[in-house]
Amino acid sequence: MFYDDIRLDDELNFVKKVGTLTEHEMHLHDALEISIVLKNNVKYHLCDRDYHGKPGDVYVFRPFEPHYNLAEDSNKPVEWTMVLFAPSIARSIPEGHKLLTPFYAADKFSPLIPAHTTFAQAIQNASKLAIAEGEQQLPGWRAKQFLYFIDILVMIFRYYEAVQQDELSNSKTDQGIINVIQYMLSHFSEDIDINEMIVMSNLRKTMFFKKFKSITSLSPNEFISRLRLQSAVYLLDYTAKSITEIAFECGFHSLSYFNKQFKLYRGISPRDQRNHLKIRREL
């Protein structure tokens, strides 16, 4: 497995892709990803399971979930639209952080939205219109792309709400954790008291930690730290704010602790993160 150091040109990117590989190494990256199958069959491999997609299927992936997508037949190249976006984009959408829930609770929600559903069909249509805007680049095309992107996020969220409603209503344990995840997504830069999260979940302490880990694959503290670091990556790459400003804006109270956690997360310091992108832009 390798870390795919994807540097987004913007907070939001629509890209049409073609692939013929039937085997390669898994990767992970910081961006959130939506994959919309356009032509021929595709295999999505995650750490513990495989999905076999067909044209019209839609898949959503967490930013830190190792995966790959492959053509099922090398003689039939798979074509898909890949939507990559930074979690920070949610700041500009009403209830945007809530719309990101399916990406961060992937162990609870299957990543697949089947082609036959009205949700997948609406996502497919919106993505085609967004791609067309990017190709034509008429006045205001970025704004139009953003509107189509919001439509896609809403359809993904509505799908999970509709499909999982029966399961969640039968499991107050899972619903409690989903409520906590949604709260953390919108308040990660603030001081979050884990004991208050336990109360919010209506679970006993031991069960809270167990269920949170099973749904997100991270502990609550790891989850909060990951959200903060994802936000820091974006601010380092796309703003002129100082590293100290970024550290405190993302919820870190110590610059030295921020530097330490960032290096553990990305393998380089925040300063190197910023310098590497600067060098790439100058090439």
UniProtKB/TrEMBL annotation:
The keyword DNA-binding applies. SUPFAM superfamilies: Homeodomain-like, Regulatory protein AraC. GO terms for molecular function: DNA-binding transcription factor activity; sequence-specific DNA binding. Residues 178-276 form the HTH araC/xylS-type domain. Keywords: DNA-binding, Transcription, Transcription regulation. It holds the Pfam family AraC_binding. Gene3D superfamilies: Homeodomain-like, Jelly Rolls. InterPro entries: AraC-bd (IPR003313), Homeodomain-like_sf (IPR009057), HTH-like (IPR037923), HTH_AraC (IPR018060), HTH_AraC-typ_CS (IPR018062), RmlC-like_jellyroll (IPR014710), Tscrpt_reg_AraC-type_HTH (IPR020449). It comes from the Bacteria. PANTHER family: ARAC-FAMILY TRANSCRIPTIONAL REGULATOR, HTH-TYPE TRANSCRIPTIONAL ACTIVATOR RHAS. This is Helix-turn-helix domain-containing protein. It comes from Paenibacillus foliorum.
